[in-house]
Amino acid sequence: MSEPQPTSDALANLLAGYQPPAGTYDELIGPDGRPRPHWHALLKDFAGMGINQRRTAGSTAEGLLREHDVAYVAAEGGSRRPWHLDVFPLVIAPEDWQKLEAGLIQRAKLLNAVVGDIYGDQDLLKSGTLPAPVVFANPYYIPHCHAYKAADDVFLQFQAFDLARAPDGSWWVLSQRTESPAGIGYTLENRIVTSRSIPDQFNANNLHRLAGFFRSFSEQLARISDQHLAVVLTGGPDEQDYFEHALIGRYLGYPVVESADLTVRDNRVFLKTLEGLERVDVIIRRIDSDSSDPLELRSVPGHGIAGLLQAARSGNVMMANAIGSGVACSEALLSFMPGLCKRLLGEELALPSIASWWCGQPKEREFVLNNAQRLSVRHAFARRSLLTAGAFEFGETDPALADPALLKDRLALRPYDYVGVEHIRPSTVPCLTADGMLKPVPMVMRVYLAATESGYQLLPGGLVKVSGKDLGTESHLSKDIWVLSNREIERETLIQPLRAATLKRSDRDLPSKTADDLFWLGRYLERADGGVRLYRNLFLRLAGEASLGNVPVALNILTSLLVSQGRLSPSRARRALAAGSRAVEHEIWNILFDPDSPDSLAQVLRNVARTADHVRERLSPDTWRIIERLTSVPNLRWRVHTVSDAVSVLNDLVEAQSAVNGLIHENMTRGYGWRLLDMGRRIERARYIIRVMRELIVRADRDHPGVLGLQLELADSLITYRSRYRAEPQIPAVLDLVLADESNPRSLSFQLATMRGHMEVMPLEDIHGHLSRAQKLLISMHTEVLLADVDKLANTTSRSGNRTHLNRVLNRCEKGIENLTDLITQTYFSHSVGHRVTGNVIRENADDAV
Amino acid sequence: MLYDVRHETRFKYASPVTISHQLLKLRPRRSSRQNVVSTELDVTPHPFVQREWTDYFGNAVQFLTVQEAHRELVIASISRVEVLPGMNIMLDFSPGWEVVAQSMQSPTNAEALSASQFCFESPYVDVHDDLRQFALKTFTPGRPLLDATMALTSRIYEEFTYQGGVTDVSTPVRRVLELKKGVCQDFAHLQIACLRAIGLPARYVSGYLMTHPPEGKEKLQGADESHAWLSVWCPELGWVDFDPTNNLIPNLEHVTIGWGRDYGDVSPVSGFIFGGGKHEVAVGVDVVPTTASVA
Questions:
Q1: Mind listing the pLDDT tens digit for each residue in A722-762?
Q2: Which of A164, A274, A466, A653 has the fewest CB atoms within 10 Å, i.e. the most exposed one?
């Protein structure tokens, strides 16, 4: 396809339908009706792309976002929603940005000083610069944070501001985010996706890169953290913006931990790792202040670290941001910013806030009551998420306050809780429509500042949000921001994690909870693998589609296999068996595809998804993508109508699983994390082999070529057997292959040998050169299997027809594996969750419950 | 009045506790009406870490960590406290309550500013319109602050039944208002919420009652345990205590440990433990008048 040259015609075409509404500022079109100069480069290129290519760029971006699984959790439902991006960026001129930069840095400095004063001398309250209720009525004010020692007096390491541009072209601050501002991870992701979707345009513009900002921030943290660890503290995968917690951790090279991973000892914070406790100096806090310490603050089960506040208050751990920082987020503060600036910095406030009237003052309250229709009336201390909102929702009146009578009542009871904010008429920005054209849509933008050694630094970029409804879609869109520079920009890449070069080789700071998750991920993956192999074989046999050379197997044996693997309850098995092969087939359908059945494959795969989510920052993007594919397969039930459909779904699963295994094998560094994951696999595989053998081979009355064939197939060893023996399966040879043959990666002895290897390297288990309990256990199992006489195993049978010798070996191994699992759990995952107790018997209360 | 106070908290656990952090607010507070002659803490097993500080509200805080495995933890706080008689308060001579509420909107001196932080919702005290309506029945226009507060104290005493086991820490104040039942903590929170709902500063006081009253005098409700009441701020006079559980203004029979916005700020013993399984708590309080010399 030949590309049309960028001509003024193409440009005119692109802009033909672009009509900004009157009375607002348009980012693209100037007052003369022509594009502003800083857009020229992008526009020219973009017009040159042609409609098709522009649409392709849009779908490339959507594809990349899907592939990176960029999502957020909607606050209401708790379901994950995909993140959406419009590839057409907002371009900002250098001089425009410089002005903004100065104003934002001043504001960041100011807010930091405000927080310092609130938790310090409270001069602002004593002097009346700030009315006391703005602080005391604020639920995010935490009195216990008084006398907080912040390193270098920086309470707010990280801040964000939401801005809108007024019709006259000046910027207004809509809100200030000081608690733990969200969105910078999404900003990074937007940049990566945008630059890949329109690479030529990205390279043709001389725009600021984002990496430098992150480097300065991370250097600052490194400076403060001395020699110890910095961690990202998250509430876990159910958090709205967990995606970016993992991303920030990966990007900055810090472990992503949950509250249960940390502990306070002697007023210092430690990370529980496989090798014991590691001192933590810096916590990038992504959990709420008020639930960060269940001892001194609110007690929310599973949240917070007992003793954290005291450790932080005494300066023994640097919190970014300080606990209690959220006090400065309130919209009640906005109208006082000019006075605060004069008082604390001795300067005029450079960047104005949107006009607001805080109802804690009589005159302002009166004004809001009389002008409620013209204002957005909202809770002054409520937190509004930009992630879930578009531009318009941002400026809306709280629907609960729309009724004037109700508003009056509310204002009478708690006036200080409310604020009236001027309606915003934000600037419009060009957005790419579904048909590849541009359309002006109202926007707000979020920008970020971080404390660095040389003071606050502004990220030269940010996040634009527009409402989806302006573009005829349900979901809100985000955009990248390109800040142009007059100077030549050094090309830096964002993709490389910052600390890659300095990362330690071993994962000594692997949090024990993450280790636990990796162990379970291995176990669930293997359970899914065993399950899928089992079902595939059963389906084929039930349907009479058994491949060449397979001999049919009695129905009761097939059913008992499912029971022995814990996939089907004995009572259901009995019932199905009595009803015949259709009923058994029906049960297998259920196990496979019924999302509500506790035994179903869907359940196992959900567990894979959940544990993978917990360790996401340790998986490569490719591995993650395949795991996503794997775990979404059971949702495709509608596709399955016949046995051959089911088999093809199962084949897909086997393939996806092989891919996950391959990627983990190829890409994960051979650290403790990988070893534990592999231990999990080996444990499950060993259990699987033992159980299948017990069902199929221990009972001599089941000796039958079909059963032996099934045994080999379930152990994925049929091909090996055929190539080796070229004969019908015989018991001793089968036993040798699946039990004792160390060259067969599916044999029991192979699993035991591999686990021995792992346990020789794992920490804590090698004490003063002696063998650990786990090692002893493994050696004894392994030796028993290796020394077993296959003929004797095959031929020693009891009167009832059981191979007693074999059965004993299998039982001992199964018991041994169970003990090994307990040992591993006790040794490495002792992150027991604590709970709160009170010495108050006036009432036995809810949070006493264990 | 001189008292020997012993407050013992005994935790028994079904399985060993490996780490136990305890935050204690047990030390009686020195004030113009209370003289602390001696105070000590006795903890078994012996804590590995022990620190002390003064919290934002001026209460003594003791923090300790027991790091050896244990199935029983005993925390005993032993003090000798002298309670001095309060001044005679003329309830009628206090300013009208609206004036005080108004002054809290923009406090003009340090004392008022400090009082104003007790005018708002706090984690255990929700401020709702029902509470405001309840309060306004007593707080009629122009009524002197302390007179109205005492009347509200009496109303709670008369309209509510003291009954354990119907509420717990998480029971919202509004629910207590509906139930018309509860214990000292609920009544203190309830009255605090009523006062704050009409813009008045009220704080939560934690302490004890004399456990062995002189012969012929009835034992007060809430003795043998930790007790709680409230305090309201009045210009000129400062903080004045009220005990809605016993319908009185505390004088010589109340020993004060400390105060805060609500129970959460002054909970006497709150801990965070690892392990332990099911646990039992036994609390014993003795407040016995003594004739030993103050010195």
A1: 888 877 788 888 899 999 998 899 999 999 999 999 988 88
A2: A164
Least confident span in A288-292, A425-429, A563-567:
A563-567
With beta carbons under 8 A apart, name residues in chain B contacting A122. 113
Contact A815, A690 (CB under 8 A): no
Same domain, residue pair A173 and A104: yes
A489 plus A532 within the same structural domain: no
Element containing residue B66 per DSSP (H, E): strand B60-66
Determine which of A313, A408, A833, A842 to mutate to test the interface with B (most B C-beta atoms within 10 Å). A842
| Closest CB from A128, A137, A263 relative to B120 | A137
- Residue A287: band (very low, low, confident or very high) from pLDDT cuts 50, 70, 90: very high
Q: Residue A830: what pLDDT? A: 62
Q: Is residue A21 part of a domain?
A: no
CA distance B88 to chain A (A): 31
- Nearest CB neighbour to A837, from listed B119, B123, B271: B271
Contact A839 B56 (CB under 8 A): no
Residue A280 lies in a domain: yes
pLDDT number for residue A492: 66
pLDDT tens, B216-270? 777 776 667 889 999 999 998 999 999 999 999 999 999 999 999 999 999 999 9
Q: Is A295's CB within 8 Å of B272's CB?
A: yes
Q: Which domain holds residue A725?
A: 513-828
Domain boundary among A453, A468, A502: A502
Same structural domain for residues A118 and A178? yes
pLDDT in tens, A34-83: 999 999 999 988 888 888 888 888 888 988 888 777 887 765 556 778 88
Nearest alpha carbon to residue B81 among B29, B24, B32, B8: B29
Predicted TM-score (pTM) of the model is 0.82
Q: Is residue A1 in some structural domain?
A: no
* Helices marked H in A83-210: 94-118, 123-126, 132-136, 184-197, 199-204
Same domain, yes or no: A127 and A260 = yes
In whole angstroms, give the CA distance from residue A541 to residue A545.
6
Q: For residue A667, is it within any domain? A: yes
Q: Which of B23, B116, B127 sits opposite A295 (nearest CB)?
A: B23
Q: How many Å apart are CA A447 and CA A600, to the nearest integer? A: 46
Closest CA to A133 of A464, A455, A362, A374: A362
Q: Do B226 and A139 touch (CB under 8 A)?
A: no
Looking at A464, A482, A502, the residue that finishes a domain is: A502
Please tell me which of the candidates B18, B116, B279 has its beta carbon nearest to residue A136.
B116
Site from B109, B111, B272 to mutate, A interface, most A CB atoms within 10 angstroms: B272
- Cβ contacts below 8 Å, chain A against chain B, sum to 149
Q: What ipTM describes this predicted complex?
A: 0.93
Q: How far is A242 from chain B (nearest CA, A)?
A: 27
If asked whether residues A620 and A519 sit together in one domain, one would say: yes
Q: How many domains does chain A have?
A: 2
Q: Are residues A537 and A495 in the same domain?
A: no
Residues A572 and A492 in one domain: no
Residue bearing the bigger pLDDT, A580 or A107: A107
Please give the domain boundaries of chain B with CATH numbers for all domains: 2-84+267-289 (2.60.40.2250), 91-264 (3.10.620.30)
Q: Could you tell me the CA-to-CA distances from A47 to A44, A54, A184, A484, A602 in Å, in that order?
A: 5, 9, 30, 20, 47
